[in-house]
Amino acid sequence: MKVKSILVTQPKPETDKSPYFDLAKKHSLKIDFREFIHVEGIEAKEFRKDKINITEHTAVILTSRHAADHFFRICQEMRITNMEELKYFCVSESTAHYLQKYITYRKRKIFFGKQNINDLLEVLKKHKKEKFLVPCSDIAKQEIADTLAANNFDFTKATIYKTVCSDLSDLADVKYDMLVFFSPAGITSLFKNFPDFKQNTTLIAAFGQTTSQAVLDAGLRLDIQAPIPEAPSMTMSIENYIKKNK
Q1: 3-state SS string over the chain?
Q2: Which residues does residue 136 pair with via DSSP β-bridges, in sequence order?
Q3: Which residue, among 108, 118, 122, has the nearest Cα to 60 in the 3D structure?
Q4: Residue 13 in contact with residue 20, Cβ under 8 Å?
Q5: What pLDDT does residue 89 have?
Q6: Does residue 5 lie within any of the structural domains?
Q7: Residue 1 has pLDDT above 80, yes or no
């Protein structure tokens, strides 16, 4: 099947320097972006029910910008201000730099890994005496908690935001040659919005093993998968498919 239109189930890139735009130009594609899921903050009133005292913790592990946004939001709502000595551990350098939105970067103790919790583990082991807070969503990956528990860290998971399905009703009559997913929640949103969805000739691309499995579990056909050895990114996998099927 010739691919002419693609819907990427993520927000539109903030800059023009995106491989999706390069892909669209190179192969004359129409590529649209639309979040199939979004996050909503859990209010302080609801958070208090978990009886988690943020001020009892000496360090926080931030896995994403969402985690950072909602951590500082919940602190503001609860009027917690004495966090000057708090240490920040981020899974990636980009998340660490994002903290400049909320704190004076050079005056705080900030550490980061390359991309995931395992990359950060060696840094964390040098701070075993800390009491860690892990802000997360209601569908947070268990991998982080399992890794911290396996290495005997003193930590608390704090659910401060939730992932919800976006309203996609305006897409009911819009057809794309390919849908690109990045999380199992995206597949859930697809069927919540369109319970009678039939794949037919629509191509489905998935990033990550759990997303790929969610596609198959939903009874859909998985046409494109990433990352794979010859294509570590989603755009590379899509381009390889387009080249093979020209």
Answers
A1: CCCCEEEECCCCCCCCCCHHHHHHHHHCCEEEECCCEEEEECCHHHHHHHCCCHHHCCEEEECCHHHHHHHHHHHHHCCCCCCCCCEEEECCHHHHHHHHHCCCHHHCEEEECCCCHHHHHHHHHCCCCCEEEEEEECCCCHHHHHHHHHCCCEEEEEEEEEEEECCCHHHCCCCCCEEEECCHHHHHHHHHHCCCCCCCCCEEEEECHHHHHHHHHCCCCCCEEECECCECCHHHHHHHHHHHCC
A2: 159
A3: 108
A4: yes
A5: 95
A6: no
A7: no
Task: Label the pairing between strands 109-112 and 178-181.
Answer: unpaired
Question: How far is residue 29's CA from residue 62's CA, in Å, rounded to a whole number?
Answer: 36
Q: Which two tokens stand for residue 191?
A: 């069927």
Q: Model confidence over 152-189: pLDDT tens digits?
A: 999 999 999 999 999 999 999 999 999 999 999 999 99
Q: Are residues 131 and 216 in the same domain?
A: no
Does 7 reside within a domain? no
Query: Domain range spanning residue 230?
Result: 165-194+208-246
- Same domain membership, residue 230 and residue 178: yes
- Measuring CA to CA, which residue among 193, 197, 194, 189 is closest to residue 219? 197
Alpha-carbon span 130 to 148, nearest angstrom: 12
Q: Which residue has the tokens 């994002």?
A: 98
Reported as a single tens digit per residue, the pLDDT across 82-126 is 788 899 999 889 899 999 999 887 777 999 988 778 888 989 999
pLDDT of residue 143: 85
Give the pLDDT of residue 5.
97
**pLDDT tier at 131 (50, 70, 90 boundaries)?**
very high
Whether 201 is in a domain gets the answer no
